[in-house]
């Protein structure tokens, strides 16, 4: 059996007691009516000053004991901070609208707080959080906790998409390729794009501003983790997922909200272009997930119209080498009971896992067409939360799933009579779970949250508990991928960043205390907008193209560090009798 590597974080043990509570009166000296008003103000005020209660805490760790004075307001602030990056927390005693100082009430509040703090002191993930360490006074007494340890994840690299939020990505480590799918996640910007794209009666054509893009990055040198943009393919519809086809005729694919699948050859010249779509592959609703069978050169596409289609990308190879036409066609089509939200393909066992909106996972046999249903997990009609992510360990036949507020662990079994899935365990979560990844080397289940945090659950002896958490992004994490051989985690978020985290691995040198991430930034690809709505808050400021003489074509130029990339832009057209200019007010003088 392989050695289990150390888990994330430190092992911290605490004992917490509330010795007593004390009434504290910070109000200025007063008499008569003024004193009565101060007492009334202290009872209903939320300010820090005035009459309040302080609790005397006794904290013990490794033979050392110290006391702390804490107010309920400080407990509440710590609770709110922890809620963002842990899966769940014990319930905090309710706040009182009006301050109460009766002995019975204060004694009850003291007991409830003591129970709450004791539950926090037993949580490994909570005690590894800076907010809890500061509250319990650990940072003052153990300065080493402020230093990064070898068991903490290290941010090794970051790729920044400055235009849209990242929704999906695929990596090819052997060739150093990174394919990013980004879509406009700001509703103000999306509305502005739709308004700008409206063709007015006096205009020859609409601007056709994109709302998503598929970008291919290449690593500058093996192991450098510094990436450079190769090409950018832009689309009008929103983008939900991406896929990468390797080998001969390699290409990049993306699922679009109009039901089509965008495509671009990896051998395409560098620059920015409008994306093409696969022929004969069209859903009646938005494409929600993509998966690729590299051996058979099949593309699995799932849509919100409940359809799951199998598309032949090569068809004996000749059609693909000639282009994206020829004999490419849909091989079969089947339907799921509810829309598919995510897909996972296991090439070794020829299994396709589809997570549904209803919370059910359908396992398909892809060894022969048409697709055959092997089993449904769980086999129940009970309404569950939709599946947001899956991971599969083929060696043990274990499937991990994340739902809106629940994590599931399943064992897949097969026999001559059929196949089935058995629940091994489940974990409830208060925050919305957006993805899941299984780290087999350390036996940890990594779960991404809508708050931008990642929580690690340690699985041992059939039990699972949260062991570590950290704030990985500033916004919702949309996709993540774990590489167990390299012990690294890749995460993408709506905050327009993709980050590569290194975990402890034998033989890998530890990063220095002052080491920082290698940052790769994409050039901004925002064209000029027509309306004033583009200047609204939350929308990046546009770059104004340089207007050249009529014989020339205006263009965008990008920094030299990203290579020469030029985007052609149509020259402005002035209405008859109007004087052309480069301002945003395209309607000036149209009535003349």
From TrEMBL:
<dbReference type="GO" id="GO:0005769">
    <property type="term" value="C:early endosome"/>
</dbReference>
<dbReference type="InterPro" id="IPR042234">
    <property type="entry name" value="WDFY1/WDFY2"/>
</dbReference>
<dbReference type="InterPro" id="IPR036322">
    <property type="entry name" value="WD40_repeat_dom_sf"/>
</dbReference>
<dbReference type="Pfam" id="PF00400">
    <property type="entry name" value="WD40"/>
</dbReference>
<feature type="compositionally biased region" description="Low complexity">
    <location>
        <begin position="553"/>
        <end position="576"/>
    </location>
</feature>
<feature type="compositionally biased region" description="Acidic residues">
    <location>
        <begin position="581"/>
        <end position="592"/>
    </location>
</feature>
<dbReference type="InterPro" id="IPR001680">
    <property type="entry name" value="WD40_rpt"/>
</dbReference>
<protein>
    <recommendedName>
        <fullName>PX domain-containing protein</fullName>
    </recommendedName>
</protein>
<dbReference type="InterPro" id="IPR036871">
    <property type="entry name" value="PX_dom_sf"/>
</dbReference>
<feature type="region of interest" description="Disordered">
    <location>
        <begin position="529"/>
        <end position="592"/>
    </location>
</feature>
<feature type="domain" description="PX">
    <location>
        <begin position="33"/>
        <end position="143"/>
    </location>
</feature>
<feature type="repeat" description="WD">
    <location>
        <begin position="280"/>
        <end position="313"/>
    </location>
</feature>
<keyword id="KW-0853">WD repeat</keyword>
<dbReference type="Pfam" id="PF00787">
    <property type="entry name" value="PX"/>
</dbReference>
<dbReference type="GO" id="GO:0035091">
    <property type="term" value="F:phosphatidylinositol binding"/>
</dbReference>
<dbReference type="InterPro" id="IPR001683">
    <property type="entry name" value="PX_dom"/>
</dbReference>
<feature type="repeat" description="WD">
    <location>
        <begin position="470"/>
        <end position="501"/>
    </location>
</feature>
<dbReference type="InterPro" id="IPR015943">
    <property type="entry name" value="WD40/YVTN_repeat-like_dom_sf"/>
</dbReference>
């Amino acid at each position: 059996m392989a050695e289990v590597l150390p888990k994330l974080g430190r092992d911290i043990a605490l004992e917490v007691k509330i010795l007593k509570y004390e009434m504290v009166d910070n109000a200025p000296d007063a008499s008569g009516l003024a004193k009565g008003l101060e007492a009334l103000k202290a009872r209903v005020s939320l300010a820090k000053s005035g009459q309040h209660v302080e609790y005397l805490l006794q904290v013990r760790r490794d033979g050392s004991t110290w006391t702390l004075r804490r107010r309920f307001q400080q407990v509440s602030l710590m609770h709110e901070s922890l809620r963002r990056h842990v899966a769940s927390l014990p319930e905090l005693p309710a706040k009182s609208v009006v301050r109460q100082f009766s002995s019975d009430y204060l004694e009850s509040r003291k007991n409830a707080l003591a129970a709450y703090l004791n539950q926090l002191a037993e949580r490994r993930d909570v005690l590894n959080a800076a907010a809890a360490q500061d509250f319990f006074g650990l940072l003052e007494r153990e300065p080493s906790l402020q230093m990064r340890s070898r068991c903490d994840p290290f941010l090794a690299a970051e790729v920044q998409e400055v235009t849209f939020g990242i929704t999906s990505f695929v990596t090819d480590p052997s060739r150093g390729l990174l394919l990013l799918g980004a879509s406009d996640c700001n509703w103000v910007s999306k509305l502005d794009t739709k308004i700008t794209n409206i063709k007015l009666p006096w205009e020859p054509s609409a601007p056709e501003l994109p709302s998503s893009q598929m970008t291919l990055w290449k690593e500058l040198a093996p192991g450098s983790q510094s990436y450079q943009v190769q090409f950018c393919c832009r689309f009008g519809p929103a983008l939900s997922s991406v896929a990468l086809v390797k080998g001969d005729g390699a290409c990049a694919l993306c699922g679009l909200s109009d039901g089509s699948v965008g495509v671009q050859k990896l051998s395409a010249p560098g620059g920015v272009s409008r994306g093409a779509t696969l022929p004969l592959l069209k859903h009646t609703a938005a494409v929600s997930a993509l998966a690729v069978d590299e051996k058979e050169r099949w593309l699995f596409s799932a849509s919100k119209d409940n359809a799951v289609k199998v598309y032949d990308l090569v068809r004996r190879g000749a059609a693909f080498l000639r282009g994206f036409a020829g004999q490419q066609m849909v091989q079969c089509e089947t339907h799921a009971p509810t829309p598919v939200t995510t897909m996972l393909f296991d090439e070794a066992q020829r299994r396709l896992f589809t997570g549904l909106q209803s919370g059910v996972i359908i396992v398909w046999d892809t060894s022969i067409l048409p697709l055959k249903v092997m089993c449904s997990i769980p086999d129940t009609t009970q309404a569950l939360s939709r599946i947001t992510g899956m991971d599969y360990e083929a060696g043990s036949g274990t499937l991990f799933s994340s739902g809106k507020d629940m994590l599931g662990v399943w064992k897949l079994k097969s026999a001559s009579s059929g196949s089935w899935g058995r629940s091994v365990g489940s974990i409830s979560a208060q925050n919305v779970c957006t993805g899941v990844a299984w780290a087999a080397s350390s036996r940890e289940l990594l779960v991404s949250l809508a708050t931008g945090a990642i929580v690690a659950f340690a699985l041992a002896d059939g039990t699972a508990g949260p062991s570590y958490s950290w704030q990985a992004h500033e916004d919702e994490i949309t996709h993540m991928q774990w590489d167990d051989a390299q012990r690294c985690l890749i995460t993408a978020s709506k905050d327009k960043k993709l980050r590569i985290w290194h975990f402890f691995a034998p033989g890998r040198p530890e990063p220095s205390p002052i080491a920082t991430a290698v940052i790769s930034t994409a050039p901004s690809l925002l064209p000029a907008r027509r309306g004033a709505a583009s200047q609204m808050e939350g929308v990046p400021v546009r770059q104004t193209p340089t207007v050249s003489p009529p014989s020339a074509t205006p263009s965008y130029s990008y920094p030299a560090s990203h290579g020469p990339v030029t985007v052609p832009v149509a020259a402005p057209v002035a209405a008859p009798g109007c004087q052309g200019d480069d301002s945003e007010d395209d309607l000036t003088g149209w009535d003349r």
